[in-house]
Amino acid sequence: MNVLKWLKEKMLSKKISRTLGQKEFIHIATSNPECRPNAAPKFLLRFENNFIYLVDYTISRTWKNLKINPRASLSVMDTDTLLGYQINGKVEIIERGAAYRILLKEFKAKGISLSAQRIVEGLRREKTHKSFEAALPEKVVFFKLKIEEVVEIGTHGGIKREKL
Question: Are 46 and 144 within 8 A, CB to CB?
Fold first, then answer.
C-alpha cells in the first residue's frame, strides 16, 4: 500500500482521538427490535486501540437495546473546528469479572476527578450546585465499542469515511 494513502486514511482516527480526549460525555444511539431509536449521553471512560469505553449508570434502554442488537453509533462534535463525527461499531457489554473490576476502579477515580474539577470551576464562576457531584452510582455497566467506521461531517456538508 502507498504510504501517503495509508497516512491519509488514518487522519480521521487521529482527529477523533484528539476530539475524544477533550470530552467527558459522548452520545450513543441504539435501536430496539421494533427499530425505535434511542440516543443517550454516556460517560466516556477511555479511548484506546480502536476501542471506546463508556459507562452506563442508568442501565435502562441503551443496555436493553445492546443486549439484543450490539450495533451502536456514537456522535461527538469538535467545537473548535465545528467538525462532527459519527463512530460506528459493535459493542461488548462488560457487567462482571476482572475487566469489570478494573474499569470500575478507573471510573471511580475519573468520576471523582471530574466532580472535583466541576466543583472548583463552579466556585470560580460563583455557580451553586444542587447536588454533591462526587456521589457515584452504585451499579454501572461498561460498553466497549470496537470502532469499525468513523465518519467526519464537514462544516459545508462534506463527508469523509474511514473503515477500520
Answer: no
